[in-house]
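Record type: monomer structure entry
Structure origin: computed from sequence
Chain ID: A
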Amino acid sequence: MYTLGISCYYHDSAATLLKNGHIFAAFEEERFSRKKHDNSFPYQAIRECLRVAKIDINQVDRIAYYEKPLLKFERILQNFVETYPFSLPLFTNAIPSWLSEKINIENTLRKRLDYHGNIYFVPHHLSHASAAYFTSPFQHAAIFTADAVGEYATLSVWRATNNSITLLKSIHFPHSLGLFYSTITAFLGFTVNEDEQKVMGMAAYGKPRYVKKLQKIIRLHPDDSLCMDLTYFSYLQKDQMWSKKLERILGKPRIPGSPLTKRHMDIARSTQEIMESLYNSILTHLYTVTGEKNLCIGGGVALNALANGKIYDQTPFLRVFNFGPAGDGGGSLGAALFCYFANTRKKRQPVTTLNFGNTYDNKDIEKYLKRFGNRFSYRKYGKRALILKAAQLLSANKVLGWFQEKAEFGPRALGARSILANPKDVSMKEKINLIKKRERFQPFGISILRNHVKNYILLPPEQKDFPFMNFCFPAKEEFRGRISAVIHKDNTCRIQTVTKENGIYFDLISAFYKKTGTAGVLNTSFNLSGQPLVEHPGQAVEMFINEAIDVLVIGNFVVTKKEK
């Protein structure tokens, strides 16, 4: 039985194909369109899912869409009526796409895809909750989902038991923890739904000087429901997310591209602290209500790795699971999983790897190498020799482009489409930020052998698996010198635990450990800032040629630049 999940029309459009409840293939549309956070209908992602499975669209038993479009449109109409005439420009800009595309999902599936099977529409936050729970190792758990906004809900809490998910409470638009964080992201001159991690990274460089001022604009009621003072925000009426009143307490907004100041970093730190305080207060209340020791988290807010790492210290939960693509791309999987597993006794398998994308053989790869062959030299190795060569290059402080096996699904590179470096050399942080054209302050994560992670990182006592790089934890002081390039300003570290299930990537880090005594490597996505991860070998080769990456390890080939 095939189930196809689809998400689109907000950001991170994606398609996921299940075969008998197992993830068979999963792709984000941006990998093919080359448009970061592409929100268009995922025709190419759907086509790839079908191609990999060698089926046509009408061999799919059912399609699951990740939200209810009519309910979302109802909320937009309601907002327009309540805020007219101020919201008229915003409404007139939005209405054409709604009438032509967004409200006609079933028509698109029936006519443009020529699909004749069953179509289900799963509520947005239920899709997030399902992605978080049905991929987890837990039979019973509390669930927390939060993002900017779904149909009406912006934050929801749930209880799950034996494949049944029950909604306990939701907070509705316009009150939104996600929109609060995104508003400050925009205020600091960054791009909403893309640069929130920059605010998180900046936070370590600032001081919480604005906490008291920000507490005026967002707070919790005694029952932990969220309330915002909407006079500080303008996203109900226009494209700009904040009002002049916010400028009166924070100062002038930063012009995009202008220098970052201490004030900007203090605002980022204060915003992060407010968000963490609200986050953990709601989670503590959720624990009190459910009594569950297991927690699943999902939605865009769950991509805040710094906040996630503090759940263990600041709430009673003992075990936390965060599915890697926690945002809307993962919603395509959540919708499909809900349709397959919900309210059944069907057995499910925890998801421990996200390698659900395309793979390319050496014959395909060498076609691209020959095309650009006058720009570099390359040599083919056997697998064992390739691993030893790559480990030697890393130990010699070479920056590697690493393109291996099946691509990852979601926003994080996890050792298939990565840029890798020696984590001991602190200069690697600045060097790779320059390669990727990112701000110098942005930190990197570490991929570290699971059996050695507790030597380096202060982990919670009941959990040692963190396979998706969605948690930050403090690094142990005595080991910080060995991984200085991935230690954040606040001495935390964003980690990915690596096991044999990670294939050749595990073999590489194991070889690097034997050679250097360091059980992890600096890992970042194989892309430039503002661009999607590389999808096919040609993109990897072109980026290697054009940027200051020292060596490309692609398939069984090691590629080096010719001396000028």
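Annotation 1: The mean pLDDT is 95.
Annotation 2: The two ends are 56 Å apart (CA to CA).
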